[in-house]
Amino acid sequence: MMDPEAKEGGPLQEAGGAGADGGPRSGSAECGVASPFRWLRRLSRELHWSFVLAVFAVYGACQGVGNAVGVVAAAYYSKDVLRLQPSAAQFYQGIVDSPWVVKPIWGLLTDVVPVAGYRRRPYFLLAGVIGATSMLMISLQSNLGLIPAVLALTVQSAGAAIADVTLDALVAQNSITHPPLAADMQSLCGFCSSFGSLIGYSISGLLVHSMGAQGALGLLSIPSALVFSAGILLKESRVTNFSYKQVHKKFYKAIQTMGTTLKCPEVWRPCLYIYVSLNLSLDIQGGMFYWYTDRLTGPGFSEEFVGVIYAVGAVGSLLGVVLYQSALKDYNFRSMLLWGQVLSSLTGMLDLALVTRLNTKIGIPDYVFAVIDCGVSVMIGKLQWMPVLVLCSKLCPPGIKGTFYALLMSIQNVGLLMSAWWGGLLLHTLNVTRSEFTNLWAVVLIRNISRLLPLMLLFLVPQSDQNSTLLPAEMLHDDESTEPVKDGSGSVEFSVLVADDSGCHPPVEDVQDERIKVTDDVGGDVELIPLMN
Q: Where does it localize (predicted)?
């Protein structure tokens, strides 16, 4: 599964307000690290407990525990069951991750096409059903061929992507209606993902050893079932009297609005940097995993110890989230991305020392050095990724927040996909195979150098701090139809495809009295919200 936060950060890791000088602003918000329960109660009070529950289900269970077990199980499944070469394994993994590339389609569906009057619930339910059934199929079929296996993994990836984009829509919605909580929501997602990853990686090796790769993959149906449950419990306002005859117009309007929004310098400049930085961070996870588990040339780590290394990486990820939430969330974007890119290249040299066995020459055993390598690398990767997520949430215009956030995540996923394919091509070119690792050191060195190249485009990233508004005021202002901000007692109402004719928005067609009723499930209040101006 492709998770933007699960970007390669170690030898085994794959799919985990500033002043003018870049220093932190004076003052700080309530810190979730110092008082986690009070922090969670505050988020539950401001955003509703069902939203927090959905975050735990999607990021904690599905993308945390599920992704952790899936990474280890799928790696052994490709190596021992499908008998693939490292470069081929990365190629097919790109196919499996393809549903993440088309996230805007899922985002458009959640924004434009309500099902039974709801925009988010049905998609959580769909994600849970297809994720569970595909993993049960792959675990119950003992002689599943390459194509059916790749198809089943792709369907499971599609379920995870649908759940992710639906939750992203809720996060983007709340980032606009509750701007001070934008960084806190990303921290909550990061905490859930890291804790879930820690649990998943801790048990992944034991599961693969005791149940086999197929049996471990079958357990991924449990996180999907939790996503299904979150869809049932989610508190959401119901849309009534919706005209499905207007869906095609709304699709066209959404695409038009996204296109014109991307033309804004405040949007396309950071998007270009993010894409290039991911594209050039070559993913060589396949070669590193095969070398780690090779008993002749490599260290020959067992399934259990591979899970231990991943678990330490999850601890590093959690430490990265804690450090970001407590000390770094008020630094400006450019400073964070600069040091993140530099430190990512430097920590990559730990892989080089491990592959060349420099660690043994200075008396550090492979298993100790591998644990240190993964923990440090994943922590730096998390620190590098958190401000990117906050940046993306700040670039979403009103009306198509879910869809546009999905588009931004899709751009990043294309970068990750190309990174995996470029890495696979590099492994193939330098003849790194299932049993030949002579040139693996050169692959690692090339990857580390490539991580520094995106710094030439760092000027594209705004110098603004992470609590400021990045979009022009005219893009955030809408006189006639805005998404109401919760007053503390009610739920957030959803409106779709709101656009105005100022700034970077396209000219707005005249649509008279095109309104829908939004009925609150609890209070029964009705509010008329125009779909278009």
A: Membrane
